[in-house]
User: Fold this.
Amino acid sequence: MSFVRTLYRGETNIDFRPLWKRSVAISGALVVVSLLLLLVRGLNLSIDFEGGGVWEVPVAETVTVADGRAAAGIDNARVQLVEDPGRGTFVRVQSGTADIDRSPEIVAGLAELGNVSIDEVSVSTVGPTWGSQITSKALRALVFFFLAVAAYLAWRLEWRMAIGALVAVVHDLAITGGVYSLFWFEVSPATIIALLTILGYSLYDTVVVYDKVLENQDSPIGDGVTHTELVNRSMNQVLMRSINTTITTVLPVLSMLVIGGVFLGGATLRDFALALFIGLILGTYSSIFLAAPVLAWLKEREPVDDATRRRQRRAAEAFGSEPEPVEPVEPVAVGGVTPRPRKGRKKRR
Amino acid sequence: MARRTSALVVIVVTVAAAIYTLVAGNEPLLGLDLQGGVSVVLQPTTPIDPDTGEQLDIDEEALDQTVEIIRSRVDALGVAEPEISRQGDTIVVDLPGVKEQQRALELVGQTAELRFRPVIFDLGPELTLDPELNTETEGDGQPAEPDESTETTDGDESSLGPVAGRFAPLSTSTETAETTEPTETTEPAETTETTETTEASEPAETTETTEASESVLPPGEQGTLEPEELAVIEACSISGVTPPEEDFADRPVVLVDDTGNRVCLGPTLLTGEALETAGVDIDPSGQWTVNPTFRRGADGIDAFNEAAVLCYVQSPDPVICPSGRLAIVLDHEVVSSPTINAPIFGRDQIVISGGFEEDEARDLASVLRFGALPLELETQQTRTVSATIGDDVLRSGVIAGLIGLGLVAVYLLAYYKLAGLVAIGGLAISAVLLWAIIAWFGENLGLALTLAGVVGLIVSVGVSADSNIVYFENVKDAYRAGRKIPTAVERAYQSAISTIVKADIVSLIAAALLYWLTVGAVRGFAFYLGLATILDLVISWLFMRPALAYLARRRAVIENPGLLGLPTTGGSP
Assistant:
């Protein structure tokens, strides 16, 4: 209870340093395992990436897989009975690109099986070259995205922060991929969209954390402390915000997952929500437990640079001019935004 | 104070947008995954230079023209909000809410050049003569249908309908139909009597036609036909059908017609470019007919009449048109092969009859009208979503979204107390503006909201809430550092907005890149994520601070900072 209260009041003083040692090791191990899984086991890619066709029709509960196969008329097709909560049973036929041209017949056969009109049969076909195009387009978008974000972060924050943020993002994507590989969840375009969102979140989260570090670095809080300490202190300051943001973003996603997965039908919704859920949790974790130590580590390796010297000088001046350390100088507002000159500065207390 | 006005302006704009949307009756246009429908992705096959064999660039103009043709073809389907867009070289056709999905798929998919080829021989049903060949050619979408084809070889008129339709001049259609009736009925009958190959030349030996053929054909030409004759014999002696990659316009081919019969077709006599338009009608006997209109001049009706004469006279020469039928071939498939009932036609006086159903007639007319695309397209992706599934997804999406929003609101209120109201206010403003914008886009630009878009929006709830959280936490820091509440609210804003802008710009970079570099669903997601992020920036900028500042100046709050979720004992005196 008292911890919750200190957390609530933002007065936590957790020493993250020992935690970081462990978390970085765990993250590293998870990433390695995930990459191995991705390499060895691969991903359960939907037809959208490899080409092929999927046909789905609502059927009576008495229908069997064999009936479905017979109705579709494809011997080597993958036929499944899918139970969708709230919507009943579906026969799902999945086949390769060779059967795409036979789609009208398959549709007719399945419509007869389900005793519905042909327009109740859901069809999805993807040509053999299209899937690879989509994949390569998505990968290209990803590369450009990384470059653009790295450039932006290097310009607006620091290049070390750009590296730290990208390390965190790659970590999140790799582990999400690993989870998908391990549990053999199907990777659909919805999953890709969700992955891209995770990417956005993870970066967003890291930016908020780093921005605090930057702010403190230029303010008296950063005076006379090591980089690691500085990052540690900043982490304590943004901890509550990270927790709250995660809760507010996870709540809608969780509701999608539960509504889409348990109560109402909506396979697509579930696809989205699952990847988002895993990614969100990872994104928050990585910004605190990976992006932060990576930054601290990088900064410790930086030679005593101008910024540090400036800080030290400022600290000296501050102590020289004002007795009270609480408000020695007007703290410089963040990220290069200079304080607005105000007419008649307000009294502070 | 200017800042307070900005918050008022935001509220006024929001209310105005809501009223406008309601009054104008704008409603969000739902994407096909939310209301059912059909989506097709097409890409042009890279044209190859026939002489050098090099790949040619895809003509931009031709691509735009193709989009226009597909648009008009889709309009004929009566879809309310078709969305046909070019994304690079890719053409995306989205038909939300289309009822006859399978028909729509067929219609959009038919994209190759329309060719008129003379029918040289009927080769009989495409039986499983050579099973290996059949499996080989399975890819072209004409599997053997033994049931139907045996029926047709019986010479049963009714089942022959669509194939053995008739091209007749409009004005004299009833007359000609009658006069040619005998030829027509004997012809299918002969198919059963005679062997496959000899049959074709037989009807041509009637007196009237031999005369005509002499008068039509320049005498010298018959001698030069040797190589073509050979080509026909060679092409038509194969046991299966011509594979699509060997289906050249200027060569004879063997194709399967719509009743499962293999037919030997001569070189293309004219293409769909000769056609101007085509409509449907009901003839005096109550039959649905198709009425094509050809263009004027040498490339239009004249070309058709040249072909018509050749077929009408049933020239015995195997290279020309011994069967008297002119096949309409689209995309490697014989759509119809009506008999030519007159030698000369007026360009808008042509009737194709043949016991069509209304749908069949309309589809044939569509094919004639829009069959000829300047590019050959390949279907890359098709997707149909039935209306029931669309409804389900929409319902669960909306319910999930509302529950999610509700939970976020409760949490924010519980944690930040009154300040939570500011966050909720911001979310509400954002929601109303998004609704108005999406409805406006749907109504005016035909831009649909897809499931991916809905997810983008649900996700943006988190981002918006976060902007508020970043700000409130900063206020808490400033307050703890000893500032009075109103001052803390002002000071904290400086660092908060800087963080928010940086983080939002990262989101915007993501949205913009995804939008430009991808196709399909990801684009929809990126669009709405970008839109919601921009709104978040606007609201953080104009609404969040003045709203919180307003609360911070209330006496009750100053006396009890806990009302803003601030630590009650944290503030220095």
Remarks:
- Residues 485-517 of chain B form the longest helix (33 residues).
- Chain B has 18 helices and 15 strands.
- The longest strand of chain B covers residues 114-125.
